[in-house]
Automatic annotation (TrEMBL):
<feature type="binding site">
    <location>
        <position position="205"/>
    </location>
    <ligand>
        <name>Mo-molybdopterin</name>
    </ligand>
</feature>
<feature type="binding site">
    <location>
        <position position="157"/>
    </location>
    <ligand>
        <name>Mo-molybdopterin</name>
    </ligand>
</feature>
<feature type="binding site">
    <location>
        <position position="210"/>
    </location>
    <ligand>
        <name>Mo-molybdopterin</name>
    </ligand>
</feature>
<feature type="binding site">
    <location>
        <begin position="221"/>
        <end position="223"/>
    </location>
    <ligand>
        <name>Mo-molybdopterin</name>
    </ligand>
</feature>
<keyword id="KW-0479">Metal-binding</keyword>
<keyword id="KW-0732">Signal</keyword>
<dbReference type="GO" id="GO:0042597">
    <property type="term" value="C:periplasmic space"/>
</dbReference>
<keyword id="KW-0560">Oxidoreductase</keyword>
<feature type="binding site">
    <location>
        <begin position="67"/>
        <end position="68"/>
    </location>
    <ligand>
        <name>Mo-molybdopterin</name>
    </ligand>
</feature>
<keyword id="KW-0574">Periplasm</keyword>
<dbReference type="GO" id="GO:0043546">
    <property type="term" value="F:molybdopterin cofactor binding"/>
</dbReference>
<keyword id="KW-0500">Molybdenum</keyword>
<dbReference type="InterPro" id="IPR036374">
    <property type="entry name" value="OxRdtase_Mopterin-bd_sf"/>
</dbReference>
<comment type="subunit">
    <text>Heterodimer of a catalytic subunit (MsrP) and a heme-binding subunit (MsrQ).</text>
</comment>
<dbReference type="GO" id="GO:0016672">
    <property type="term" value="F:oxidoreductase activity, acting on a sulfur group of donors, quinone or similar compound as acceptor"/>
</dbReference>
<dbReference type="Pfam" id="PF00174">
    <property type="entry name" value="Oxidored_molyb"/>
</dbReference>
<protein>
    <recommendedName>
        <fullName>Protein-methionine-sulfoxide reductase catalytic subunit MsrP</fullName>
        <ecNumber>1.8.5.-</ecNumber>
    </recommendedName>
</protein>
Length: 301
């Protein structure tokens, strides 16, 4: 069992401890873009609803899923603490004007910085509210100029068992891959995040660059991206490869479609005691539902 049932998550696992260590190492490296404009939780509220309080930074950086750094929720903070994300480059491949490696700055530099507070819902039925900094993926796509024939965009995480100790065990088919349909990628909600809580992205949250799609389950939010590929065929994705009966390509948050092993109707907001109802498309239906009109969302899960 790769993903545990929500009931298996002990409350002791969400206790933050010593989370500030190692943070400063990243300031001034990837910080340039992430800190381009200051944001404080509670100031930039775009995307969050009234009763959504920002999750304490301690929790968001000490209770993580990042199997490249261990399968336990507290493993990534510890096992990623010496990871050096910079220098970083992203290989752009496939149906695109100029396939080539891009440096971090070539890919993201000078694009408008976004501050977005998003609800994030893990398939394991816990959720958080995170203030992200990053760029809209659609701005990156415009810069890269995919060919009109491209229908999907695929992302791949770094493969380097020396730097990512979790990859020494075959708990998932490495490297981790995710993909979006091109209209999903060009939706205004979709971010390539470089920071959170006004700081450079911590290693355990996917430094230096990760995907954020708040209407989809968390596993779509691929971390530490080293490859972007444009294609006309629906790509395989890691969780779908690992367990096709449990994880589909679309992964839209849908409280009416249960996971085979548990209900998706409710969620535990990290830091809260009572469970909340999970909202269709995680509450972002206004912005995303039209992309799926005519699709059977029970089949296309
Ligand atoms: N490369 C990679 N990306 C990943 C994962 C992973 O194991 N490896 N886990 C996913 C899952 S299941 C979730 S819920 C989110 C968690 O993001 P967070 O730790 O920043 O909250 O990252 C996603 N991105
Ligand atoms: Mo997840």
């Amino acid at each position: 069992m790769l993903i545990r049932k929500p009931d298996d998550i002990a409350s002791s696992e969400i206790t933050p401890e010593g989370f500030y260590q190692n943070r400063r190492a990243f300031m001034g490296t990837v910080g340039a873009i992430a800190l381009g404009s200051a944001v404080l939780p509670g100031v930039a509220r775009a995307g969050a609803m009234q009763d959504d309080k920002v999750t304490p930074e301690e929790d968001a950086t000490s209770y993580n899923n990042f199997y490249e750094f261990g399968t336990g929720k507290e493993d990534p903070k510890e096992q990623a603490k010496d990871f050096q994300p910079m220098p970083w480059s992203v290989n752009v491949e496939g149906m695109v004007k100029t396939p080539r490696p891009y440096t971090f700055d070539e890919l993201l530099g000078k694009l408008p910085v976004q501050d977005r507070v998003y609800r994030m819902r893990c398939v394991e039925a816990w959720s958080m509210v995170i203030p992200w900094q990053g760029v809209q993926l659609k701005d990156v796509i415009t810069r890269l100029q995919p060919l009109p024939s491209a229908k999907f965009i695929e992302f791949t995480t770094l493969l380097d068992p020396k730097r990512m100790p979790g990859q020494r065990r075959a708990v998932l088919p490495w490297p981790y891959k995710e993909a979006l349909r091109m209209d999903e990628a060009n939706n205004s909600l979709t971010l390539l995040a470089t920071g959170m809580y006004g700081k450079a992205l911590p290693n355990q949250n996917g430094a230096p660059l990760r995907l954020v799609t708040p209407w989809k389950y968390g596993f779509k939010g691929i971390k530490s991206i080293v490859k972007i590929r444009f294609t006309d065929k629906m790509p395989n994705t890691t969780w779908n490869d690992a367990n096709p009966s449990e994880y589909g390509f679309y992964a839209n948050v849908n409280p009416t479609v249960d996971h085979p092993r548990w209900s998706q109707g409710k969620e535990r907001r990290i830091g809260e005691f009572l469970r909340r109802n999970t909202l269709m498309f995680n509450g972002y239906a206004d912005q995303v539902a039209s992309m799926y009109s005519g699709m059977d969302l029970r089949k296309n899960y």
